[in-house]
Amino acid sequence: MFRRKRRLPIGGLLLAACLAALLWLTVRSAAGWLGGGVDSGGAREVVSDFYTMEREGNFGGSWELFHSQMKEHFAKDSYIQKRAHVFMQDFGVDTFGFELGELEEVGAWRMGGDQPLLEEVFAVPVTMTYLSSFGAFEIRQDVFVAQESGEWKVLWSYQGESDKE
Q1: Ordered mean pLDDT values, 10 residues apiece, the chain (165 residues)
Q2: Domain of 120?
Q3: pTM for this model (two decimals)
Q4: Which domain of life does the protein's organism represent (predicted)?
């Protein structure tokens, strides 16, 4: 006797595919919520890229990730020279470790003083760890990101107590 093979109906296959797609979308959305809860579209990644370049001594590359307000604050040549001097000569290190905290939406923010207000700004706390001739130490800095010409760009705060919004 012949046994008839059991086949899954096409409707069952479509249902299974839809359920798999729904599960994938749910997991993907949950991962976004766990990553800071905001739809930043690369804001945290630009901070990671910035400090990866800094750690490698590529200060010219990291400078390129600055917002135009930061580029006004530091000329490229001056920035490269100062960063190399501080890290390599003053601290006596040639690299460092860094850790990024959770991305947080700040909203309207200004870099400092009389700088223009930026509307959609996010903050990422960065902790840099140095093993230097002075021992091990950490520097923690809130790094800000804002979009400029459709790209996320890095800013530092130069706000004094009287500048805060």
Answers
A1: 58 50 41 44 95 94 98 95 85 88 96 93 96 90 97 94 46
A2: 40-156
A3: 0.72
A4: Bacteria
